[in-house]
């Protein structure tokens, strides 16, 4: 079997076997012991919840990955008549069978390993984003995520590559940027923090939050990010153990409280136009299109009521 044919097979079956990252996070969350917790509970246990969801998602992902590896190995063997003959010849010598298999398909297994590695990296980031979104939702924070940022509602600001979500939303950002929060999420920074600065310069964004799990961010990097009005956000234990001396590095709990304050501030404003509330309702409609889960809809539906009352007043 050619390598290209094999790679196509792996890609197709990865799609069929693997559950999408966001859906996996949702399933783990809905089965978790803290699913019924209220806002206070999520604020008090946000770091614990973050780690729990990541760990359980990883364990379940490995189950799917092993299934893919097994199915792929079976496919290689069953597609090779010569190797099937080898199996019969050495049926009583499993070591010989394994050695022959590894030698015969070393390139194929290398490609499978690369596919696993790339999938793990990609999924880790997407799962992290989904978890942070859940924490925002369950602490009562409204936001627009990539689904809305990439829409025509943000055509003049081009924040799609830079930002994962905007609190409380794109309508508010268009109205008054400095009273909103741009949030980007990266499991680790390495040298990618420079990309964030470059994108901010390109788009004209003035400040943002960068949520990460990175425990090895250097002082120079922290200062460079701070000089560009980028506030790092890390789990509370990392804040305490690694970054406690830096006021411009937030713990996750402090970040969530600030997002709540920003979200609530917009609900209290009395100087916004009818056009603003119409745009906000449109953004929420886009945000909730195809969303059925109550815990996702709840904070936005409360905002819908608020906007409709403002339009009537």
TrEMBL record:
CDD domains: Ecl18kI-like. It holds the Pfam family EcoRII-C. Residues 108-247 form the Restriction endonuclease type II EcoRII C-terminal domain. It comes from the Bacteria. This is Restriction endonuclease type II EcoRII C-terminal domain-containing protein. It comes from Bacillus aerius.
